[in-house]
Amino acid sequence: MERDSPAGLRAGWRYLMFFSRARRAEPREVPGEAPTTDYSTRPLTGLGSPRIALTMKLPRRRYLIALVLVSAAVWPVLAGLDWLYREPENYSLIEDGLYMGGLTQQPPPGTRAVLNLCELEDSYQCDYYRWAPIPDRAPAPKLEWLERQIAYVGTHRNAGQTTYVHCAQGVSRSGMVITAYMMKKHSWTRDEAIAKIRAKRPVLRPNPAFMELLSEWEKQLAK
Question: What is the pLDDT of residue 9?
Fold first, then answer.
């Protein structure tokens, strides 16, 4: 499945769904009935002491304030954990205006077009966005699929737009598409393209199925 969509619409839809669910979850007051207040009664017992019942009033406003304070305290910790598992700049400049990499917090500076090959969408905000998910395993996609991604990258690069091609780690899937694009643009063989790209991004390593597809692409270009 491939889908081109503005990133702003995707982000806006997520916010709309979140606040819609939050509003439905709020308690509603029925006209003509007295407003309800949350109470919780909890019997407490102690060693050698009589049973005592304490009634604790917890208005909704105080509960919400407490929830906000707890969230404010926990959020930096969660954000820090997220940064531990995501390299903030896991991308490389392959040539002027063309980046290859993995899933990062933000795309490279100045990015206007993104090609996402991950099986999950990202949240990047840019002018042009294509999601073309493929698994990083055999079988490889069809040659026609590869040609469409090369055309997408070429269209935006010819328009002078900085383009970011990424997968999860920036090793195999994005490496295949970038290699195929460079083969066509510079009339390189598969191995020539891989060697030159590795000079900019040493971790480039398409899986064996993708390497076979690149060999097929090389034969196609030689016709």
Answer: 55
